[in-house]
From TrEMBL, chains B, D:
Annotated GO MF terms: catalytic activity; cobalamin binding
Source organism (scientific name): Streptomyces rubellomurinus (strain ATCC 31215)
Protein name: Lysine 2,3-aminomutase
Every D-Lysine 5,6-aminomutase alpha subunit domain range: 11-519
Pfam families: Lys-AminoMut_A
SUPFAM superfamilies: Cobalamin (vitamin B12)-dependent enzymes
InterPro entries: Cbl-dep_enz_cat, Lys-AminoMut_A, Lys-AminoMut_asu_sf
C-alpha cells in the first residue's frame, strides 16, 4: 500500500568535486559568517563604525552589526553577521593524512619485536610550567582514552611518564639516560604562545645534544596544536585534539621501525 | 504524545472554575459557528473542487480552481455552492474533465446554471462521487501515516519541532534532512511573506520565496517524500508541518491532507489579527479547514503565541488562555479530537521582569493543566531575543527547560539568530544540541518541581485563569466579533466588516450544497 | 582610619586619541576575534583545513580551530579563535552624528506651528510583503517606545499609519492624496535584501511621481539598516535599531522646517 | 552571606549519619594536625619574618625573607624556629633593622646562634613585639574591611566570583574593574603557571605571567586599591581573592592579610595532589596559613572541585564530600569560623550522562545540607567544556541555575571559552549577563524545588554520603597520608616522603619558638 517515496529532486549538486566553496548560512554560496570581538573604544556610534570597518576588512561585504554593547567604560563588544567575499580553495589545502596504517596493540607489539628486536623506549612529560597531565596521561597510562588502552599497555613499549612541569634540560638528560627512542611532550597552556616556545626550545636542545641519527623522535601533542606545524616547530610529529593512544602507537611503529622494512 | 505520566494538579486549580471557563468559551463561540455554517467562501468552494481532483494552473500560474470558481460566481453566484453548477455543466456539456471545464470556463464560454429538482440531485451525486475520491485519498494518506508511525515509532519525549525558511524548496529539503538527522521530530516549512494574502495557492516547485517558501502542492509532495526517505533511513517518522492560515486556509488544508502533511498551523483568529483578513471569511474558512484536518488525522497548531509578540506577555497572559479555550471549542465543534489540539502558547516574558522564568512556568503549567490531553505547542522566545546570540542561546535553553518542567508536548526549538536572520543551517544544529542537552540532563526534573502551594507560581496561574474567565464573560456578552474589533487579542483591532477577502464571503442560500462538508460531517 | 586608596597605577593609556585600534581579547592589541561558520564540506581533515584557510583569508593569523562538527552528511560547522592582522582606523569612520537638536514634543510642536504654520503630515507604512508593524507602530502610535510617546501624540503632526503590506504604488498614491510632508517606511524582513530592494523601488517611484521640491521626505527604518546608507538607498534618512520617536520627530522638524530658519 | 532563608532538609539526611561523618573526619585528621604542630617549614619561618616586617628582595629578586631563613638554617638549623636566632642576632649586633640583617646574613657574615635561658626569653620577647606589629596590621586591615562592608554593603544574593588571568597586573586591573562594573562581587587574580612551585614570593608589580599573574605583595596592593576605587564608585564592596596554595602558602597568607585580600584559595591537599608538593610540607604550611586567614577574617576556598578534573564526577563524588569534611576539620582546628569555610565543589558531570543535571543537584544539595553555615564555593564546568562556545554558554547557565536552586554561596562564573583561552574581557561580560539572567529570572525557584522523597536526587545524595562515610572509615584506619599515597583523591598518588619542598620541612625541637603561632593561638 505504501509506495516508495518517488523522490525526483533536482537538487543543486554539492560542490564536492568543485575546488572552491564558500560558507553556507541557509543558501548555497551565501557566504554567511558570524563574528564577535571587543574593541577598546567607548560604546557609541564611533565604536559601531569601527566594528563595521573591521568586519569589512575581514572581507564581510555588507556586514550586519547585530549587537553592540559597552563593557566597562572603555570597551565595546560586537556581534556581526554577513557574507564574506572569500572563497576557500579545497585544492590548496594540505591535509596531514595519516600515511601509515592504524595498528592494534597486538600488531604494534609484533612489529616492534620483529623489526626492532627490543623494547621501544618512550619518554613522556609536560614541559615548562605546564601541569596539565591529563592529556599525556590519556596517551600513556593504561587507563587510556576514548575506550583505548594507553601505551603502557603495549608490552613492547617501555613507557616512562615524568609527569608535570619538567624542565627542558631535565628532559633531555633523561632522554639520554634512558636511551629514549621517542620523547612525547604535552603542552596545553597556549597563552603568549607558551606551547610553541617550549616545543621549539626542546627541539633545539635535542638537536644540540644528540647527533641526528641517535636523536630520539620528538612527538608533540595538545589540544591547540595544528598538526600541520611539525616542521615549523622542529618536531617530528604533532597531534591535536582528540588524539587516541593507537594513533600515537601506530605512528611510533611506523616512524621507528618502518625504516627496517624498506632499509 | 509525551509518554511521561503527568502528576495531575500541581497547581491545585479549582475544577468548577475550569468547567466554567470552558462553558463560557462555548457560549462565546457558538454564534461564530452559526456564522460559519450559514456562509461559504471562494476558498471553501475552491478547496471542494481540489478535493474533486481539480489541480494545476493556467499558463499565467492562476490555478484552475480559481478560474472555475470565479467563472461560476460571475454567472450564478456562489450562494448554492460551486458544486451544483459545476457538475451540472459537466453532466450536460462535452468536457473531458474538471480541468477542461475550468479552462473553457476561463474563456467565459461555459454557461453555468444552478440545477433544480432531479438535475440538482444528479449533479450533487456526481459531485459527491468526485469529492468522495479526494476524501478517500485523504483517508488513505492517514492510514499510510498510521502505518509508518507504527513501523518507525513516535519520539519518546516531547516532539522537537524545527523550521526551515530559505525560500527555496531545494535548500529547504537539504536543511530539513540535516535537521532530521540531527534529531528533529517535526519540520515546519515557513511560508514566503505575503503568501497568506494571495487569494490562490501557487503551483509547482518554487525557489523564490522571501523568508519562507511558498506552500504549494508540489512543494508539499517534495518535502514529504524527502522526509519519508530520511525517516526510513533513521527509523523514525519525521513529521511535516505547514500553514493553513491565510486567504486559502481550506485549500491548503485539503492539499495538506492529500500530501500527508502531519500537522498544520491553523488558528481561528490569526488571519484576522495578524494578516488583517476579514473575520467572517476567516471563521468560515477555518471551520471547513479544521473539518478536513480532523479527517486527515492532522494535528493543528493554534497561534496564541503571536499575541505575545505584539502585546505584553504578562499583561496579556489571560488573553492567551481565553483564546486557547475558544480555539478548543471551535476545534472540537469541527470534529478534532483532543489529541489533535496543538494549542499554542509561548515563552515571551521580558527577561528583565523579575522572576520571569517562574512566571513562564506558571503560564505554561496553567495551559498544561487546563488541557491535559492536548499536544500543546510551546513556542520559544522571539520578541526579546536580540543580536546577542550567546545570550539568545541561553534563553532558548531556559525555554527548553520550562518545556520539560511543565511537560509541553511540541517544543518549537528557538534559534539563537532569531533577531538576525531566518535560521542558518548551523543555528538549527546548535538548537538541537541545546534541547538535547536540556532533555537528557534535566528532562526528568518535573519529578522534583512542585510549585509551593501558595507560592508565586500557583498564585500567578490562579490569577491568569481568573482574568481569562472575566474576559470570556465579557466576550460572551459583547460577542466575539465585537471583542476582536476592540483589540482584545494581540492589541489588534479588526472590525467584522473590514479586512482582506471580505468579498470572498457569500451567505449560503437554502439550496446550498457542498458534498465535502456533508461527507466530513457524516462519515 | 581608612585612607583613600593610594592608587599609583602606571596603566598603559587607552588608545582613545590614537587613530588606530585592534580587537582586544585580554591584552591590548592582541587582536583576538571569534568566528563561526558552516562549510559545505563533509566533516574531516579536509573540512578543518578549509576552515583554517578561510580564517586566514579573513586575516586571522595563526587561527585556532577550536570546534569542528558535522551537520548532516554534507556540511561542517566551525568555531575559530585567533588574532586578526587588521587595524581599525578611527579617523576613517564616518559617523552619522545627529546634526540637529533633540526636541521635546512641546518644542517640536512649537517649531512646526511657528515655522510651518500648519500641521506637518506624516504617512507611515510597512511596504512590500513585510507585515512587521511593531517597529513603525513604536514610532507612530501614541503608546510609543522606550517610555517616549509616538508621533501621534504630537499635536502639530498629522499621522496616518497605513499598516502592513502596503504596495509601493498605493503608498505613492496616498502620499499625493494626503499631501504628505514625509513618508515613513519600515522594513524588517531582510532576507535576500528585500528591505533594500523595496526601499530603492519606493525612492525611485517617489522621484518619478513628484517634482523634487514637492517630493515628500523619505524616512526609512528597521533593525537591520545601517544609518550610513541613506544616499545609496535614495532615502533622506535611515534609522536603525533602537530608534525612539523623538529621534524621528526632531529630525522631521529639522529637515522640514529648518530651511525656514535660514531661508 | 546568602540572605535567603534555607528550607532545611530537602534531602532528609539522617543527622546521626552526618554526625558520624564529622567524627570520622576529625579522627582521620587528628594525626595530621599533630604532624603540623610538631614541624615547621622554611615557608612558615619566612612568613613569620614577613609579619615582623621583612619584605623586599635582593637585586637578583630573591626576597630577604628567603635569604635570612636560608642563612639561619645553614648555621643553626630551623628546629628552634627562625625567631630565636634572628632576634638574638639583632639584639646583639649592629643591624639597622631586619632587612639590614638579612642583607648581611646573605653574605654569610652574620654569626647566628640559638639563645638560651634569659637571652632566649629576651629574644623571643623582641620577636613577639615585631611579629605582633604585623598581626596588629592584619587586625587593622580586617577592621577596615568590616567598615567598608558596613558602608557599602554586601551583595544580596550569592557572591558572583570572576577570574582575571592576563599575566599582566595592569591589564588585570582594567579587566577587574570592568568586571566589577558589570556586576562581579569577587575578583580572583589567577596566578602564573609555575608560581606555586617557586619557593619564594616574587617581588614588585609584574607583567609577565603565563596564564595568570604572579602573586606579589605589590600586585595585591595595586589590585586591592583599584577595587577600592571601583567599590567606592559602585557603592558596593568588591572582594579580592588570590591563592595561598603552593610552596609559599604561609607567606602568601601573611601578605593577603596585610594587603586586605578578602578570600584565599587554601586547600589542605591541593598542593600535594596537583602540584606534587610534599604532603608533610603542605599540612604544616596549611595550618599556619589558615591560622593567619582566621585572624584576617579571610574566607578560605578549598579545592575539591579539582578532583573532578582528573577523576570522574559521578564515581568520585564521595571523595569530594570526604575531603570537604576533612577540610572543615582542619579549618576549624586552625581557628576558622563556619562563615569562613568556602568549601569547594563543582559542576563537572559529563553532560552526556543521563540526568546529569539532576545528579549535579543531588551533589550540590548534599554539600549545602551538610554545611548549612558555610559559604560554599560552587565551581562551573571546565572539563566537559569544549570549543563549542555556544553550548558552553548554555552549560554555564545550567550551572548557574543549579547554584541558585541549591543556594550555593559563592558562584564562580563559568567562561564560554573555558576550553580555548584564559578569559577574554568579553567572556567575562557575557558570563555576568548569563548569571544575572539566571538569578533574576529563576533565583527564587528554590521555593518550588522539592526533590521527590525517594526520587533520583534524594537517593543519589544518600548514596554519596554513604560512600563518603565508608571512605572516611577507611582513611581513619589506614591514615590520611597513606590514603593520599593510594590515589584516593583526584586519582593522584603522592607518597608522604615524595614531592617538592620536602627538604623545607623541619621537626620542631623542644625549644622551638614562634611568636606568631603563639599570638594566633592565644589572642
Ligand atoms: C583539567 C584542567 C586543569 C587541571 C589539570 C589537572 C591535571 N593533572 O592535568 C587543574 C585544575 C590542576 C588545572 C589547573 C590550571 N589550568 Co587548567 N584546565 C583543565 C581543563 C579543564 C581540561 C584539560 C584536560 O584535562 N583535557 C582533557 C585531555 C584528555 O585533553 P587534552 O589535554 O587536549 O589531551 C588530548 C589531546 O590534546 C592530545 N594530547 C595532549 N597532550 C598530548 C601529548 C602527546 C605526546 C600526544 C601524542 C597527544 C597529546 O591527546 C589527548 C587525548 O586526546 C582545561 C579546559 C578545557 N576544557 O580544555 C583547562 C585549561 C587547559 N587550564 C588552563 C589554565 C590557565 C590553568 C591554570 C594555569 C590556571 C591557573 N593559573 O591557576 C592552572 C595551572 C596549571 C598549570 N600550571 O599548568 C587554561 C589554559 C589556557 C590557555 N589556552 O593557555 C585552560 C584551557 C582553561 C582556561 N580557559 O583558562 N587545569
Ligand atoms: C514580532 C515579530 C513578528 C510578528 C509581527 C507582528 C506585527 N504586527 O508586527 C509576527 C508573529 C506576526 C511575525 C511574523 C513573521 N515574521 Co517576524 N518577527 C517578529 C520579531 C519577533 C520581533 C520584531 C519586533 O516586533 N521588534 C520590535 C520592534 C519595536 O523593533 P524594530 O522592528 O526593530 O523597530 C525599531 C527600529 O528598527 C526602528 N524602526 C523600525 N521601523 C521603523 C520605521 C521608521 C520610519 C523609523 C524611523 C524607525 C523604524 O524603530 C523601532 C523602535 O526602535 C522578530 C525577531 C526579533 N526578535 O527581532 C521576527 C522577525 C523580524 N520575523 C521574521 C520573519 C521571517 C517573519 C515571517 C516572515 C515568518 C514567516 N514566513 O511566517 C512572518 C511573516 C511576517 C511578514 N509577512 O512580514 C524574521 C525576519 C528575518 C529577516 N531578517 O529577513 C525575524 C527577524 C525572525 C527570524 N529570525 O526569522 N513576526
Ligand atoms: C496560526 C498561524 N498561522 C500562520 C502563521 C504564519 O503566517 P503567514 O500568514 O505569514 O504565513 C503563523 C505564524 O507563526 C501562525 O501562528
Ligand atoms: C585550592 C587551590 N589552590 C591553588 C590553585 C591554583 O593553582 P596554582 O596557582 O598552584 O597553579 C587552585 C586551582 O584552582 C586551587 O583550587
Amino acid at each position: 500500500m505504501i509506495t516508495a517515496p518517488d523522490l525526483d529532486l533536482d537538487l543543486p549538486t554539492l560542490p564536492r568535486t568543485a575546488t572552491t566553496v564558500r560558507p553556507y548560512g541557509d543558501t548555497t554560496d551565501d557566504g554567511m559568517v558570524q563574528v564577535s570581538f571587543t574593541l577598546p573604544v567607548p560604546h557609541g556610534p564611533l565604536a559601531d563604525g569601527a566594528a563595521l570597518q573591521l568586519a569589512r576588512k575581514m572581507g564581510i561585504d555588507r556586514p550586519l552589526l547585530v549587537h553592540s554593547k559597552p563593557i566597562g567604560r572603555d570597551f565595546s563588544f560586537f556581534v556581526v553577521y554577513g557574507p564574506v567575499v572569500h572563497e576557500v580553495d579545497l585544492d590548496e589545502i594540505e591535509v596531514v593524512e595519516r600515511e601509515y596504517p592504524l595498528l592494534t596493540a597486538k600488531e604494534a607489539n609484533s612489529a616492534v619485536s620483529e623489526r626492532l628486536g627490543r623494547k621501544l623506549v618512550v619518554l613522556g612529560a609536560c614541559i615548562g610550567t605546564d601541569a596539565h597531565t591529563v592529556g599525556i596521561d590519556a596517551i600513556l597510562n593504561i587507563k587510556g582514552f576514548a575506550g583505548e588502552k594507553g601505551l603502557e599497555y603495549y608490552k613492547e613499549l617501555k613507557v616512562l611518564n615524568l609527569g608535570a612541569q619538567v624542565s627542558v634540560p631535565e628532559l633531555v638528560r633523561r632522554a639520554r639516560v634512558e636511551g629514549a627512542d621517542a620523547v612525547l611532550v604535552s603542552q596545553v597552556v597556549t597563552q603568549r604562545d607558551a606551547h610553541l616556545t617550549n616545543v621549539k626550545e626542546l627541539a633545539a636542545e635535542l638537536r644540540a645534544e644528540f647527533a641526528e641519527h641517535e636523536r630520539p623522535l620528538l612527538v608533540v601533542g595538545g589540544p591547540r596544536f595544528d598538526p600541520g606545524t611539525a616542521a615549523e616547530l622542529g618536531a617530528d610529529r604533532v597531534f591535536g585534539r582528540g588524539t587516541t593512544p593507537s594513533d600515537v602507537a601506530s605512528y611510533l611503529v611506523h616512524a621507528l621501525t618502518g625504516a627496517e622494512l624498506t632499509g | 504524545m509525551t509518554t511521561a505520566v503527568r502528576t495531575p494538579g500541581k497547581l491545585g486549580l479549582d475544577p468548577a472554575l475550569v468547567r466554567r471557563a470552558r462553558e463560557l468559551a462555548a457560549r462565546a463561540g457558538r454564534p461564530v459557528v452559526d456564522l460559519a455554517r450559514s456562509h461559504t467562501t471562494v476558498a471553501v468552494e475552491r478547496a471542494t473542487l481540489r478535493l474533486a481532483g481539480l489541480n494545476g494552473a493556467d499558463p499565467e500560474g492562476i490555478p484552475w480552481a480559481n478560474r472555475l470558481v470565479d467563472a461560476v460566481r460571475d454567472q450564478v453566484g456562489l450562494e448554492h455552492g460551486v458544486c451544483l453548477p459545476v457538475w451540472e455543466a459537466l453532466r450536460s456539456g462535452e468536457y473531458r474533465d474538471l480541468t477542461d471545464l475550468a479552462a473553457r470556463a476561463a474563456t467565459r464560454t461555459v454557461p453555468f446554471r444552478v440545477p433544480e429538482g432531479d438535475a440538482a440531485v444528479r449533479s450533487e451525486a456526481a459531485a459527491r462521487t468526485a469529492v468522495g475520491r479526494g476524501i478517500a485519498r485523504i483517508d488513505e494518506r492517514r492510514r499510510e501515516r498510521e502505518e509508518l508511525v507504527r513501523r518507525w515509532g513516535n519520539p519518546k519525549g516531547p516532539w522537537i519541532y524545527l523550521i526551515v525558511a530559505t525560500g527555496d524548496i531545494h535548500e529547504d529539503i537539504r536543511q530539513a534532512q540535516a535537521a532530521a538527522q540531527g534529531g528533529a521530530d517535526v519540520i515546519a516549512v515557513i511560508r514566503s511573506t505575503g503568501q497568506s494574502l494571495l487569494d490562490y495557492v501557487p503551483d509547482g516547485a518554487t525557489r523564490e520565496g522571501y523568508a519562507g517558501t511558498y506552500a504549494t502542492q508540489e512543494n508539499f509532495r517534495l518535502m514529504r517524500a524527502a522526509l519519508d526517505e530520511t525517516s526510513a533511513e533513521l527509523g523514525r517518522y519525521v513529521r511535516l508541518t505547514n500553514y493553513a492560515s491565510g486567504l486559502c486556509m481550506p485549500e491548503i488544508a485539503a492539499l495538506a491532507g492529500l500530501e500527508r502533511l502531519d500537522m498544520m498551523l491553523n488558528d481561528s483568529m490569526y488571519g484576522i489579527l495578524f494578516r488583517d483578513i476579514n473575520p467572517v471569511r476567516t471563521f468560515v474558512d477555518q471551520r471547513f479547514s479544521r473539518q478536513l484536518h480532523a479527517r486527515a488525522g492532522i494535528v493543528i497548531n493554534t497561534g496564541e503565541d503571536n499575541y505575545l509578540t505584539t502585546a505584553d506577555a504578562v499583561d496579556a497572559a489571560h488573553t492567551v488562555t481565553a483564546s486557547q479555550l475558544l480555539n478548543e471549542y471551535f476545534a472540537k465543534e469541527a470534529g478534532l479530537a483532543d489529541g489533535q489540539l496543538g494549542l499554542g502558547h509561548a515563552f515571551e516574558i521580558d527577561p528583565a521582569v523579575p522572576d520571569s522564568f517562574r512566571l513562564e512556568l506558571a503560564h505554561a503549567l496553567l495551559a498544561r493543566e487546563l488541557f491535559p490531553d492536548a499536544p500543546l505547542k510551546w513556542m520559544p522566545p522571539t520578541r526579546h531575543m536580540t543580536g546577542d546570540v550567546f545570550h539568545g542561546y541561553l534563553l532558548n535553553g531556559f525555554f527548553n527547560l520550562a518545556g520539560a518542567l511543565t511537560e509541553q508536548s511540541i517544543l518549537l526549538v528557538g534559534m539563537m539568530t532569531e533577531a538576525v536572520v531566518t535560521p542558518f543551517l548551523s543555528d538549527r544544529d546548535l538548537a538541537l544540541r541545546n534541547i538535547r542537552y536540556v532533555l537528557d540532563a534535566a528532562g526528568g526534573l518535573a519529578e522534583d518541581f512542585h510549585p509551593a502551594p501558595d507560592g508565586l507560581i500557583a498564585r500567578r496561574a490562579g490569577q491568569v485563569l481568573g482574568e481569562a474567565i472575566d474576559l470570556l464573560e465579557d466576550i460572551r456578552e459583547r460577542g466575539l466579533l465585537d471583542a476582536i474589533a476592540a483589540g482584545t487579542f494581540g492589541g489588534m483591532r479588526r472590525t467584522a466588516e473590514g479586512g482582506r477577502g471580505a468579498d470572498g464571503v457569500v451567505a449560503r442560500a437554502a439550496g446550498y450544497r457542498n458534498p465535502a462538508i456533508d461527507l466530513l460531517e457524516t462519515t
